[in-house]
């Protein structure tokens, strides 16, 4: 399955593209690019510290918890655009974070060096073992998406593909739906969901994740 910010919105986490979303208050170029980090790391660090604080105060909702139940019957893999850890806290075991996860940091020089963050604040004085500053473990705009190939494989081999709470506008992640197999059954859950070109075996569910996901999971578990 593939989840976006809509699944976490009902946990109180602001989405990025809604009219009152995070990007309304911040210019992407100032907080979510490698250039922003090079220009003003203090501002970038503070932005993600505040986002991390908000996420740690949130709790998994009914949709997150319902997806965990699928593991009782299916080999379940969650590919998510979200940088929160709500799927983990709901108990799901196999999660691919396409855009990183905010509860971890990485070396600003060696991105393969990743560390857990204790609490919500990552200090500007924190460094990796080689002395380079730590930055949020986030895939910023303009950076490659390391987990994309793994996600494509999982989608291409899936019998069921459930898309939840995403506008399908952020690439390359949005292209995943076009890697489904000919026999894959696809479900698209989002209040603003629209038909997807080239996908025939698809059910559109124009409802919020909190109500639609538990209902669909119950259907699939029968």
Describe the model:
- With 222 residues, the protein is of the alpha/beta class.
- The chain has helices at residues 5-9, 28-31, 34-39, 41-57, 62-69, 86-89, 148-156, 209-221; strands spanning 2-3, 78-80, 95-97, 100-107, 114-116, 134-138, 160-164, 185-189, 202-205.
- 30% of the residues lie in helices and 17% in strands.
- Strands 3-2-1-7-8-9 form a six-stranded parallel β-sheet, sandwiched between helices.
- The longest helix is centred in the first third of the chain and has 17 residues, at 41-57.
- The chain starts with a strand and ends with a helix.
- The mean pLDDT is 93.
Describe the structure using short key phrases.
222 residues; alpha/beta; three-stranded antiparallel beta sheet; 8 helices; 30% helix; globular
Helix and strand arrangement:
Elements: E1 2-3, H1 5-9, H2 28-31, H3 34-39, H4 41-57, H5 62-69, E2 78-80, H6 86-89, E3 95-97, E4 100-107, E5 114-116, E6 134-138, H7 148-156, E7 160-164, E8 185-189, E9 202-205, H8 209-221
Parallel strand pairs: 1-2, 1-7, 2-3, 7-8, 8-9
Antiparallel strand pairs: 4-5, 4-6
Percentage of residues in DSSP E strands: 15-25%
Mean pLDDT: 93
Radius of gyration computed on alpha carbons: 18 Å
Helix and strand pattern:
EHHHHHEHEEEEHEEEH
Q: Strands across the major sheet, in which order?
A: 3-2-1-7-8-9
Number of helices: 8
SS content category: alpha/beta
Short description:
This protein is of the alpha/beta class and 222 residues long.
């Amino acid at each position: 399955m593939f989840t976006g910010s809509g699944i976490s919105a009902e946990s109180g986490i602001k989405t990025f593209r809604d009219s009152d979303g995070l990007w309304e208050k911040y210019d992407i170029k100032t907080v979510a690019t490698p250039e922003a980090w090079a220009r003003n790391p203090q501002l970038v660090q503070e932005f993600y510290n505040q986002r991390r604080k908000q996420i740690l105060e949130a709790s998994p909702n009914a949709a997150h918890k319902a997806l965990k139940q699928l593991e009782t019957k299916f080999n379940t893999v969650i590919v998510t655009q979200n940088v929160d850890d709500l799927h983990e806290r709901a108990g799901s075991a196999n999660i691919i974070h396409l855009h990183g996860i905010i509860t971890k940091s990485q070396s600003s020089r060696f991105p393969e060096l990743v560390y857990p963050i204790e609490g919500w604040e990552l200090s500007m004085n924190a460094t990796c073992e080689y002395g380079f500053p730590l930055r949020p473990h986030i895939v910023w705009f303009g950076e490659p998406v390391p987990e994309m190939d793994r996600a494509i494989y999982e989608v291409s081999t899936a019998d069921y593909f459930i898309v939840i709470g995403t506008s399908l506008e952020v690439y390359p992640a949005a292209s995943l739906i076009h890697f489904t197999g000919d026999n894959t059954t696809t479900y698209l859950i989002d209040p603003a969901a629209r038909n997807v070109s080239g996908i025939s075996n698809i059910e559109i569910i124009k409802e919020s994740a909190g109500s639609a996901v538990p209902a669909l999971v119950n259907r699939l578990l029968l």
